[in-house]
Design goal:
The structure is a homodimer.
Chain A lengths: L4 E5 L3 H13 L3 E5 L2 H10 L4 E5 L7 H11 L4 E5 L4 H9 L4 E4 L4 H16 L12 E4 L2 E4 L4 E3 L5 E2 L3 H12 L5 E2 H8 L11 H13 L9 E4 L3 E4 L3 E4 L2
Helix pairs in contact in A: 2-6, 2-7, 6-8
The structure holds a DNA duplex (30 and 30 nucleotides).
Chain lengths: ~240, ~240
DNA sequence: TCGGGTTTGTTACAAGCTGTTACCAATTCC
DNA sequence: GGAATTGGTAACAGCTTGTAACAAACCCGA
């Protein structure tokens, strides 16, 4: 039995890190996130068994995020919220949450409920959830997630390294959404903090550009958002297979 | 989608019948019960999708009943109780309950939570019993565990060494799950530590690739997860024989 | 028991991947 | 305009992986 992988989504950094370390101490693999973009970025590259989602994020609504995730994913979601009125709980269950836990919560009870949901899911010998990789199209390009093939508009295949592919997946999961280097690094690696300081992401972006941009000097798709990070300025369609 | 069948267990007859009729009005099939004996009798004759079990029965303990049921059945159980202290809830989750709802409860919320559990159950394909399945299929290939035969998509038989076969079996048992060299070594041998240091797994993987990959230089199934190990990126089905 | 073929692990080397650094260009801010 | 900040990228070094070649171990029939 593999170790359960959780994604902890909360915009209060203290609470977020508290939960992450608490779960890690109890034998889970736990990653932090703060926004829908980060969730998507993380799901694009990582296996996740369960998402603990705070309902009140800075300027996003956990209920809506939950609804959107559920409309395409099957990943278990437990909503966490200071709002404990019945109608608010109902709203959570209606968008497909597996459980709804009120803050403040008893940490042990939280773990028990997480385990209860995981137990139910784990019955099937299925693997951890990972965003369905099928075929993606963007600006004439084609990425086949199953074969890991990137096909240029002219039909030729382009070879990407695994890291470049991972970056591409993160970008495809967040078209038109500016991503900071930190967000990208967090989605790409299991040790988000180690990447701090270096220019690894910049170089990686440069390498991907050199392979998928017609003119890497004037990137059309993988654009720089000066002072912020990068944006994948390209419409993306996902094809079910 | 069939109509969910519930079993309502409560010794307070008014509460019991209230719940039964309430659920029936909301499109469920609901049967009443009052004791462990009745539960067993009902389970012996009927399909049940979920049991709503009151924790405090006349002279029986819902927690213990839940534990006993769980030890032999996989039926979802939601505990209902006037006891709402954290340690009492914990006790419920510990014996395998899927949820624990305090009395008095909001009926709508109860239905929402029942649905949440049922949704999860439906989704996960029913556990396939460990029958002696000996034929596996993966990406056009066929592996007959009984005869130890590996048949290529073109119908030709490929000869694998025993070690290669063992590796294949490990991979077939863990499709889509990244395995470290250590995990593979541990699964293959009884002396995991002896393999440390060497490149035995790498070479073994290379040899298997050369036999089952169409293009061993660009493996489709037995992929490398750089920095981690290997993944069998291939859907696997087991055939009953 | 011997002798050949087969299987398996080890080693060594080549190739490829990735992060870091350093330097330069572009942009922004006074 | 000039300084400061930010981003691009070439070059490099360290590390990981693939695999050929070799040797030891194993198997099996004569």
């Amino acid at each position: 039995m593999t170790i359960p992988r959780l994604l902890i989504v909360d915009d209060d950094s203290e609470m977020r890190m508290m939960m992450v370390t608490y779960f890690q101490r109890h034998g889970f693999i736990a990653h932090p996130a703060t926004s829908e973009a980060e969730i998507n970025a993380h799901l694009a590259e990582n296996r996740v068994d369960l998402i603990l989602l705070d309902v009140m994020l800075a300027d996003e609504n956990g209920i809506e995020i939950c609804a959107r995730l559920r409309s395409e994913e099957d990943v278990p979601i437990i909503l966490v919220s200071a709002l404990s009125a019945d109608h608010q709980r109902m709203a959570g269950y209606e968008v497909g949450a597996d459980d709804y836990i009120a803050k403040p919560f008893n940490p042990e009870l939280l773990i028990a409920r997480v385990k209860a949901v995981l137990r139910r899911v784990r019955r099937s010998p299925s693997l951890s959830y990972r965003r369905a990789t099928s075929v993606w199209r963007f600006g004439g390009w084609r990425y086949d997630g199953k074969r890991d093939e990137v096909i240029a508009p002219d039909g030729y295949q382009v070879m990407l390294s695994s890291r470049e592919t991972a970056l591409l997946k993160v970008l495809l999961a967040n078209p038109h959404i500016p991503l900071t280097r930190e967000e990208i690094a967090a989605a790409l690696s299991d040790h988000p903090e180690t990447d701090a300081g270096g220019r690894a992401i910049d170089v990686l972006v440069g390498r991907l550009r050199s392979k998928i941009e017609r003119n890497p000097k004037a990137p059309q798709m993988l654009r720089t958002e000066r002072g912020t990070g990068y944006v994948f300025a390209c419409d993306v369609t996902r094809e079910e297979t």
